[in-house]
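Example 9 (inverse folding). The structure is encoded as follows.
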């Protein structure tokens, strides 16, 4: 029976369970987690609790977030802006019938999601 935390990535987004992995955290803390896309910065919304069994394999909380992680997040916002501008330019150049809704990058910059 794993101990988990409820983590949210966006201010009004879904809350996901991540296995704690022996880390000391509380509600309101920011943590680095291993997501499907790479390392991500999330906020603890639901504190430590034990669950019986999960339908899917739980990802891990890697560590508590540091000031460097927040600086990296801010730098990534500039990359997201540049990527968004480039993508919109390509959409318009090709006359595609689509609208770009959002651009996000993982903390480790392994992926940019449009």
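The amino acid assigned to each position is listed next.
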């Amino acid at each position: 029976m794993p101990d988990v935390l409820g983590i949210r990535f966006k201010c009004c987004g879904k809350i996901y369970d991540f296995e704690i992995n022996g880390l000391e955290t509380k509600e309101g803390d920011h943590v680095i987690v291993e997501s499907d896309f790479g390392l991500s910065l999330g906020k603890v919304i639901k504190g430590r609790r034990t669950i019986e069994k999960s339908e899917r394999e739980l990802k891990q909380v890697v560590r508590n977030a540091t000031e460097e992680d927040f600086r990296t997040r801010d730098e990534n916002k500039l990359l997201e802006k540049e990527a968004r501008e480039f993508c919109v330019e390509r959409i318009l150049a090709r006359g595609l019938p689509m609208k770009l809704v959002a651009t996000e990058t993982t903390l480790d910059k392994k992926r940019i999601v449009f």
